[in-house]
UniProtKB/TrEMBL annotation:
This is DUF86 domain-containing protein. PANTHER family: RNASE MJ1380-RELATED, UPF0331 PROTEIN MJ0127. The keyword Coiled coil does not apply. It comes from Drouetiella hepatica Uher 2000/2452. Keywords: Hydrolase, Nuclease, Nucleotide-binding, Phosphoprotein, Toxin-antitoxin system. It comes from the Bacteria. The lineage of its organism: Bacteria, Bacillati, Cyanobacteriota, Cyanophyceae, Oculatellales. GO terms for molecular function: hydrolase activity; nucleotide binding; RNA nuclease activity. The keyword Nucleotide-binding applies. Belongs to the HepT RNase toxin family. GO terms for cellular component: toxin-antitoxin complex. InterPro entries: HepT-like, HepT-like_sf, HepT_RNase_toxin. It holds the Pfam family HepT-like.
Length: 110
């Protein structure tokens, strides 16, 4: 059995990579297939790792919609031909900062 802290590390690392890959902004993201692939792959890892966090850890940050993150992973992994890049960008821009703060908060409490 893995130490659950490894999942926090995966989430943190994935967020950092996504931030690095998207630093040039939305236009660059939409123009580069490699960046899109890298971001989507890291979102899959991030989402999978959130599903493996203990429920009592997730309860420390009730403002995060953990269920939706897991559902998003299923879309990325299983409905990959229908991925909407506008939704991916929206997640990157509007949801990852809050998730990053939540992961940091959980890390300090567990």
């Amino acid at each position: 059995m893995k130490d659950n802290h490894v999942y926090l590390i995966h989430i943190r690392d994935s967020i950092h990579r996504i931030e690095t890959y998207t630093v040039e902004g939305k236009t660059a993201f939409f123009a580069d297939l490699k960046t899109q692939d890298a971001v989507i792959r890291n979102l899959q890892t991030l989402c999978e790792s959130t599903q493996r966090l203990p429920d009592n850890w997730k309860a420390l940050c009730p403002n995060i919609d953990w269920r939706t993150i897991g559902d998003f992973r299923n879309i990325l992994a299983h409905q990959y031909l229908d991925i909407d890049l506008d939704i991916v960008w929206n997640v990157v821009e509007n949801y990852l900062p809050d998730l990053n703060q939540a992961v940091e908060a959980i890390s300090q409490q567990v």
